[in-house]
UniProtKB/TrEMBL annotation:
Organism whose genome encodes this protein: Favella ehrenbergii
GO cellular component, one term: nucleoplasm
Segments traversing the membrane: none
Keyword Electron transport among record annotations: no
Name of the protein described by the UniProt record: EF-hand domain-containing protein
Pfam families per the UniProt record, alphabetical: EF-hand_5 (PF13202), EF-hand_7 (PF13499)
GO MF annotations, alphabetized: calcium ion binding
SMART domains linked to this entry: EFh
All copies of domain EF-hand, residue ranges: 88-123, 124-159, 179-214, 220-255
Swiss-Prot/TrEMBL keywords: Calcium, Repeat
The keyword Repeat belongs to this UniProt entry's keyword annotation: yes
Length: 368
């Protein structure tokens, strides 16, 4: 009779003859009890065994103590199991959230959350599911929006790896443009067919492909090129303008394959009006400057010069136009496009003919 009354208290009115495991566990998890019981075992002959403890013969006693499901350990364990399941899915976090959000209104209700969690087969009760939802529903409004969902389940380590990979690809592209297209700005202007300081996605594809072909490397796949384009296209208007381009590649450090968000004189100066004015003046004074380098090198055929020699050849000419504003760092940036790449670790040398030709080309491309 007592067992019957207990059963009737536990089952629901709409299902008096059966009880699922969730409801069964929910009742016992809700209990708070502590006690002891004698535990005996039967041997293969059906005889009762006793356990000897410190020379005495007595039945073993077991202490039963509930551990409430509200404990922080339980919270972290179940939440971590759910994170692992979601991280292992081939679907994006947005797609998984939409599966939780059955009616598509942008929020996951308690009923929707219960249905979704039970599909994962975690074997937890309705009360435990409610507690799990409370952990995710940080503002306590009884529903979960995408921001709350993402804050618990977004894989930050994955996002970090993707950001690093994108930065490396951007640095690689700048390196190829500097090596084979003079500079990032020169590459942009070459593929700016309309000469309106903008390039389309098709133009960008041609630029990236050409840069890799000149380096005898396989061009990246379409999705990678599209990701690069989207990273540069800050305005999200489907076009890359010169300002977006310069802001992006001016922040890419050469040689380290990583984005530097701290702009430096050396990395951003080539986007300045001063740099552009020097380039135009060098193009217009090409004959004068060629003669200066020939006299300084004491040769009509030698082209290579060191930084000190270049500074000596241009020092008073630059001073007459710009005063003392052209520092050594700016001068190195000016020479860099004409650097002669050498295998041995010796003092860098630059080709003055190439430097003057580059600035002549810049004047023709960009206009007077």
């Amino acid at each position: 009779a007592e067992i019957r009354r207990l059963w009737q208290q536990m089952v629901s009115a709409d299902s008096p003859d059966a009880m699922d495991k969730y409801r069964f566990r929910e009742h016992f998890e809700a209990m708070s009890y502590k006690g002891t019981s004698s535990v005996g075992t039967l041997n293969s002959l059906g005889q009762s065994n006793t356990i000897s403890l410190k020379g005495s013969t007595q039945k073993s006693r077991t202490t039963i103590k509930t551990v409430t499901s509200s404990s922080s350990k339980w919270d972290s364990n179940v939440l971590e199991r759910l994170r692992v399941i979601i991280a292992a899915s081939t679907k994006s976090l947005e797609e998984i959230f939409k599966e939780f959000d059955e009616d598509g209104n942008g929020f996951v209700t308690l009923v929707e959350f219960r249905n979704a969690i039970r599909r994962f087969g975690l074997g937890i009760t309705s009360r435990e599911i409610d507690q799990l939802m409370q952990k995710i529903d940080t503002n306590g409004d009884g529903k979960i929006d995408y921001q709350e969902f993402a804050s618990k389940f977004k894989d930050n380590s994955y996002e970090s790896r993707m950001a690093t990979r994108a930065a490396n690809r951007m640095a690689k592209l700048k390196e190829l443009m500097n090596l084979h297209m003079t500079s990032a700005n020169d590459a942009f202007r070459f593929f700016d067919v309309e000469k309106d300081d903008r390039i389309t996605f098709a133009d960008f594809c041609k630029l990236v492909t050409k840069a890799h072909e000149l380096a005898s490397e396989k061009p990246p796949t379409y999705p990678i090129i599209k990701d690069l384009f989207d990273n540069i296209d800050v305005r999200k208007d489907g076009m890359l303008d010169l300002h977006e381009w310069q802001q992006t590649f001016g922040r890419v450090e050469q040689g380290n394959s990583r984005i530097s968000f701290k702009t430096t004189e050396l990395s951003m100066w080539e986007n300045s009006r001063e740099f552009e004015r020097i380039a135009h003046l060098m193009a217009k004074n090409r004959k004068l400057l060629s003669e200066r380098f020939r006299q300084m090198l004491n040769s009509s055929t030698a082209k290579g010069f060191t930084f000190a020699q270049g500074k000596e050849a241009l020092d008073d000419w630059l001073y007459s136009h710009f005063g003392d504003s052209i520092t050594d760092a700016k001068l190195r940036c000016l020479f860099n496009a004409a650097k002669i790449h050498q295998e041995s670790q010796v003092e860098p040398k630059y080709d003055y003919v190439r430097m003057l030709d580059i600035n002549k080309m810049r004047l023709q491309t960009h206009g007077n």
